[in-house]
Each structure stands twice: as structure tokens, then as C-alpha cells.
Amino acid sequence: MKRRLAMMLSVLVVLSLVLAACGGSKNEGNGGTDNTAGNGQSNAGGNTEISGEIVFATHRTDLVDNGTYDKYVSEFNKQYPNVKVKYAPYTNYEQDIRVKLTAGDAGDVLMIPTNIANSELGDFFAPLNDLDIFDQVRFADFKAYDGNYYGVATGSSTNGIVYNKKAFEKAGITEIPKTLDEFYEACQKLKDAGIVPIYINYGAQWPMGQWGRNSLAHFSGDVNFENNMVEMDAPFQLDNAWGIGLNIVRTLIEKGYTEEDLATNNWEASKVEIATGNAAMYFLGNWVINQIIEQGGAAPEDIGFFPFPHDNSGTVNAVLGPDYFMGVSKDSKNLEAAKAFVKFMIMESGYDADSGFIPINKNNEPTLPQMAEFMSYNPNILESVPPDSRFNEIANKAQIPFTGEEIQQAAVAKDLQAEFDKLNQKWAAAKKELGY
Amino acid sequence: MNLSYKTQRIIIITSFLALPLVLLLLFTYYPSVMLVYYSFTDWDGFGFDVNFVGLKNYREIFSNPEYFQILRNNLYYFIGGLVQTALALFFAVILNSKLKGRNVFRVILFLPYILHQVAIAIMFQTVYHTSYGSLNKLLEVLGLEAWKQQWLGNPAINDWALAFVSLWMYMGYNMVIFIGALQSISDDLYEAARIDGANAWQSFWHITMPSIKNVVELMLILTLSGALQAFTVPYIMTLGANDTSTFLMKTLDVAFKFNQFGLASALAVVLLLMVAVVVLIQRLILREGGTRV
């Protein structure tokens, strides 16, 4: 308690100093608030009323280093010349930002850490309702609570098969597989041609989540599958989405369609393998396409993207899901500047398109050619729904990581049913203990 | 100012001690005390919403067998550690004799300890890699294709493979300490024994061993507590995949993956107690031998 008191005192001291220092301009800033929405955009000479310094905490250290963010900020400064944007890049974002949030030092604009319950968002973030963008963006309700919107998604992704066209050509695959059987046939052809058919990145762990939680809606065709798990005592079944995903990945491993060494983390190297055509496919999000091109060194026209056929029905699902959400810290000293920056980043910067995302603004078309290819196969598009916060509570209580670790284990277990029984038992016990 | 010698002494001693003491209290004792405190709460690692829950976390640990089953994986590191101590003693005795080029060998065996643990883990990842790892390539060259393995993938051998890495890393350190101890034994003893007709084994067992008993004891304690705390090697090399998770990795998962800092603190306290108990038992048993400790 002492520590808390000391911290509060020091914060008070700092705050009072700051307030005293900018007391004069503060009033002006408040006065300008009301008409921001009205003339902010149309003001050709830039909005000089909003001013101050904001700190932007980001997970994209690469964009800080290569100057992409500088480009956005200089565009932003054309509209708001008196706002100074500073970056706070974190290589281990999810972990570091939580510490910073607890210490009250997370910056003004930040990506909302994934596992804060929506009911707790108000403790850390300021409502963004007055930005007036929530009717135009996807996933508007994801970070909303009690009618307040606390975050906007920065990009939208979908999962599918990212493939090397040259490798497909070499193996004599002319048609993109539209059913699971055709998919296995393609794998066999690739294997016969001496190409690793699909790099599942077992050793890196997180990519294994693709065969589990990340694809529940994809495999079941029901975007509420994950949220419904909260009501189930035995959600892990051989004949539902969990069983479908695991059966596929187990078949791939069994038939030798994956990379040979399953234990080692080869994530970085695997991008080069895909780029050079030594390996043919990834089952990942579209965000990986730019990484294969930029870090793996592939020619953009060699990399394609198609929806993953998880069964033989012929209809192929594709689920749109949000990337990180951007929010504004409740304690920001320059709230208006921070909000203006969020609006700019989402609506104008082009961050989502540059990063290979599907645009977050519903009215924009994806610019990535691979996305156009993906859409040309006419997948059944499902837009994901806000997660039920009880899911994470139960998962944490049950100590089921959902990081891909549980899939790693189940993918090589001798008896999948026994593995599912174990998970079901943990799930049911945690659910009961929490009273859900 | 006219201060008595005694006051001056007190002032000087306190002022010299103050800084290290403050650092020690701030960075060692304060966190430890807070760890124990958190172990009685349900803190989730976020904010200041901390509720006192009494012994609930401890009850959870002792009623759920999963936490202690994971100690089985630590056992591999302990067995590896015993082999490591024996090997270290073996090399120490050899390299303490008048062997040609013994300093070169000492340096070679000690070098792994100087390397960074993370570097070693990454290095061994490439050694063990199934398709282009040097170990499997070596077996190929030797015509032993049948012995090729998924060194980190096969649950039957991956824990041994990992324990070997930690053996390889720490063996040199143990050896250097043994050499230090061996050098303190007077040559006269060996000479007298030789005159009385003792062979090499007899002089090792009756002269060397009793003289370095304390060091062996220390090594065993370090080995055991090291095995209980095995972390870096499995964490970097496998992330706990294929059943290679250790107790410490589980503790970290509970804290940072499952947001149960209270429970994780309790696990850490239990680990601390386990090490303390083991050290105590070991000292008691070894003290029975009659030598001073």
C-alpha cells in the first residue's frame, strides 16, 4: 500500500506541474473540442487548435525502423501541425505493454492487449465514440462495453492457404484444390516432386493454433462456435471443429506432408523455404504474404492465396477476423490529439493496406493482388463476432493455453479421444468452479 | 566536529553498508517478501485489484497432481546432473595429473560454461535438427542411418537430449572446482600411499574422496537445485512441446499465459521450499558421516 501511495503522490506532483505549465493552452484546447468534428477535416491549412505531444506504443518495431510510421506521421502533421508524435516500440509487445499499463505508463495511443476483459477496458482506455467512424469500420463492437467504444481494429485478416505458384507448377498441380481430398492429392504430388507440401511450423508452436482455436468458425461454419463453448461441458469432440482440425493436421503429419523436423522452431527459415519453393504451402493469415515477399525474398507474382477446403462439400469458408485494436489511454494528457491520431491511422494512413490487411473500412477494397485471387474462388465469407470474455476466464482457470501448445500435444498424441477427454475434463472443472 | 572514535566507526560502517544494503533489500528481499504475499492472493497481474484468498492457491497445488507430475521431467536433469558430477570428477582427476597439454584440455572442457546459455540452446537446436542437424548428418556419414532420430521430437529421448545439453554446459564448471579442491591435497599423502603399495583406485578412494567430500556434497546440492530449476534449455529449444515442460516453465505459464500471478507465486514458493528441504536433508545425511561441514 505504501508503494501505491508513493506512486500516486509522485503522479500527482508530475500532473500538477504539467497542468500548471500548460494551463493557458488547456482551455483553448477544450474550446476547440466541440468543433473538431465539424471543421477538422475540411480545414485545409491544418487544425492548429489540437496540439501537444503524444506517445504511440506499437508492436510494429519494423515500421518504426524502416520509416513507414514517419511517413504516416508527416501526413498526419499536415492536418495537425501542432501535434508531436513519439513512438514507443516494443518487440515483446503483449507482455511489455501489460506491465506499462499497470504502471500507468503505456503512452497515449496504443494497441489494446488481447486479454483484457471488455468490462475492464474502461479502467485503462478512453471512449472513442465521438470519432464517428464506428458505422464504417469492421468489428466495431469488439472492444465496446456499455455503449462505449474503446478500440478500433487496425486491420482485418483471413486464413487460407498461402502457396508458391512455382512449386505448384513444378509438381504439376494445375487446379487449385476445392475439396479436402483434392487438397491431399495436391500434397501427394508435391511430396513426389520432392517439395515439402505444407510447412505447419509445429516447432514454433503458435502456428499450430491454426488447426484449433483460430479456425473454429472456419471448420464449423459457425462464427459463434467459440462463444458457445462457454455453455458446453465437453466442447472438444472428434466430430466438431476441434476434431476436424486435428484430424487434418494429424493426417498431414502421418503421411509426411509436413516439414520433417517437428520439434525445432524454424519460423524465420520457413519463410525462405516457401519463397524459394522448397516448401509449397502455409495455412496462415494473409498477413504472412508480405513477410514471405519482403523477408523471404519471393517475387510477389509467385505467391498466391486460396481458401482452405476443410471438407469435401465444395463450399469453402473464409472467416474475417480483426488484428490488434487501437485505443487511447484514459490518462492521456492530450486526449484530443491522441483521438485525432487514431482516426487518421485507421481512416487515412493506409496502414492496413500497407501491412497486407483487408481494409478495416468496409468501403475500401483490398489492394493486395493475392486477396483478389482469394476472393475470386468465391469463399463463403463469415465475419467473426466479439469474443465472450468468459472464454478466456475459463481457459485461464482450466490452464488450457490455446497458444497452439494444446494442438502440438494433440497432433502427435497416440489417442486423440483420450487427449480430448483430458481437455474436456479440465474445461468442465474450470467452468464449474467459475459458476458458468 | 569532534566525534569519538566509536561514533566515527559507526558512521563509517553504516555509510559504507547503506548502499549495498538498500540495493539488497530493494532487489532481493522486497521482491521475495512480495512473492510470498502474492502467493496468498488472487492477483491476475493487471492493475491493483488484489484480494487475499488465504491458502487457496496452496490447496490447489497440493490437490492437483498435474503440478507434481511435471517434476518427472526435472528428474532427467537430475540424473544428467549426477552423470555430470561423476564425469567432472573423472576429468578433474585426469587433468590434475602430470598430463601433457593438460591446460589445453582444461580450457576446452571449461569453455562451454563461458558461452551464453541461449547461444548454447540455439547451437544445439541446429545440432539436433532432424533434416539438417549435424548429429544426424554425422550418423549418415558413419553409415548409421538407422540411428537417426527426431532428437527433440521423440518423447522417449527428447528429455535426455535436453539434459545432455545442460550436462555439456555445466560439466566444465564442476571440473574446475574439483581441480581446485584436488590441488589442495598434499602430494605427500599420495607418495606415502604409493610406498605402502596402494594402487591408483585405492589412493583415489581413500585419499582423494575423503579430502574433497565437502566439494562433492556442494556439487550434489547445486546439481539438485539446478535440476529443479531447469528452464533455459527446454524453454528455448522446445517451448515445452512433446512433454518437455519443467516445473519452472509451468510456473511461468501459470503467471504469464494464464494470468494467475497469485497461483504462480505460490508455485514459486513451493519450489523454494522444495529446494530448501532437499538441501537440508542432504546436509543432515552427509553430516552423519562424521566430518565437519
In a nutshell, what does this entry contain?
Chain A is built from 19 helices and 13 strands. Chain A has 436 residues and is of the alpha/beta class.
| Low-pLDDT runs of chain B | none
CATH topology of the largest domain in chain B, by name, is: MetI-like fold
Overall shape of chain B: it is globular
Total beta strands of chain A: 13
Tally of strands of chain B: 0
User: By CATH's scheme, which homologous superfamily of the largest domain in chain B applies?
Assistant: MetI-like
Computed structural class of chain B:
mainly alpha
Membrane topology (chain B): Multi-pass membrane protein
Main location (chain B): membrane
Family (chain B): Belongs to the binding-protein-dependent transport system permease family.
Pfam family, one (chain B): BPD_transp_1
Write the layout of secondary structure elements.
The complex is a heterodimer of chains A (436) and B (293).
Chain A: H1 2-21, H2 23-39, E1 52-58, H3 61-65, H4 68-79, E2 83-89, H5 93-103, E3 109-111, H6 121-124, E4 144-145, E5 148-149, E6 152-153, E7 156-164, H7 165-170, H8 180-192, E8 196-198, H9 216-220, H10 225-228, H11 241-254, H12 267-276, E9 279-285, H13 287-294, E10 303-306, E11 317-322, E12 325-328, H14 335-347, H15 351-354, H16 369-376, E13 380-383, H17 389-398, H18 405-412, H19 416-434
Chain B: H1 5-38, H2 56-63, H3 66-69, H4 71-96, H5 102-114, H6 117-128, H7 134-141, H8 158-183, H9 187-195, H10 200-211, H11 213-228, H12 232-237, H13 247-257, H14 261-287
